[in-house]
């Protein structure tokens, strides 16, 4: 890594669900590279500073067309790069539909220009959980809008005052592990948090993916991400369907019948399932499940298993039993 890159603590991210480029306001966004994985600048005030094994841009994967591990190194003023995701799961998730209900726990994380760059989930009145690779934006330039299906309106908007990455989080693009982080809000919100599932569920368990990510693989077909929250009903599948998965802390999911999955800008968002009359958080959108063989979003995807980190979340937030949504 060059001295300049080292001093900037540039971390090469290979997550298929990150965003791709530096965005400006809607209608005036800068180039939106199609890579799903980007280089994030650390030095952002997170408790667990740099991720281990940072990979220089020069060693990033090449020759993969719309590669999921494209490294984007850039900054706007003091702001570093924002999450650029690579091929994850589905239709605005690709192949999804407009949200059929108002989920109180859904969160859009915004960069310094107020633009959505990752999803998150409200797990306590003053805490949201997201992917670790969504935590590299400088803390002073991150805000969260909690609740509501419109990415721009409604809900409660809060500043992020603290970022806590899992102590074992590894941002190595070739070996992304423990991809989870908690963001503390400047004050509690009125929206109801979601309860974390006791366990993820066996293969064929029906789940729902939520996000404001891109709704197609080709940026020419959907040049702008959706304004309305998207949802996709899908299934958990055997771990063997996803490459590079950690069975103890990850979940593999793939739609059983169609080309549908989370995609760019869905990173950090929730995988949920219905338990009785309420929703439970099952996973956090993390990365592609077959990026070495298929550069597209559709196909298997990997989610961080929320249940595996339940104790860490409770200890960090100091809220052992969040009110169920």
Count of DSSP strands: 16
What's the shape?
Answer: globular
Task: State the CATH class of the domain at 196-306.
Answer: Mainly Beta
Low-confidence stretches: 1-45, 47-92
The largest beta-sheet arranges its strands as 11-12-13-16-15-14
Span of the ends, CA to CA:
45 Å
Q: Percent of residues in helical segments?
A: under 10%
Note the main sheet.
6 strands, antiparallel, barrel
β-sheet strand percentage: 25-35%
Structural class by SSE content: mainly beta
CATH level-four homologous superfamily name of the domain at 196-306? Trypsin-like serine proteases
The Cα radius of gyration reads 17 Å
CATH architecture of the domain at 196-306, by name, is Beta Barrel
Rounded mean pLDDT is 74
CATH fold-level name of the domain at 196-306:
Thrombin, subunit H
Helical region count?
Answer: 2
List the helices and strands and how they pair.
Blueprint: H1 3-7, E1 10-12, E2 39-41, E3 97-98, E4 106-110, E5 116-124, E6 127-130, E7 143-146, E8 156-165, E9 181-185, E10 195-196, E11 206-211, E12 230-236, E13 250-254, E14 270-275, E15 278-288, E16 301-305, H2 310-317
